Amino acid sequence: MTALTSSSGHADHGPHPPRPRPGHQVVAWHPPMRLEARPRILRWTCECRARVYYLVVGGGRAHVRRTDRQTGAAHETARMRYAEAERLWHEILLGQAA
Ligand SMILES: [Zn+2]
To answer: Could you tell me the distance, in angstroms and rounded to a whole number, from the CA of residue 16 to the centre of ligand 1?
Structure first.
């Protein structure tokens, strides 16, 4: 994560995603693929939670990453258009995807 830079918000205080709602969209999470030379974090959720989500852009594509602070495990979605990734981001923040 040290190679990532942030461009907005506060590193230690972002939104708190709610518990996923019944029937939420199940996101396909993959091991980190490190496809971007210079990934940039646009948004993140609050790091007081065990699971932290990041909206990441790079190379003209975007994806969502999540980390589990207890295990240090990181996972990320497939690359997608920015608009798609932003929609997924909002769904996660609404408990509609996880
Ligand atoms: Zn918090």
So the answer is: 6
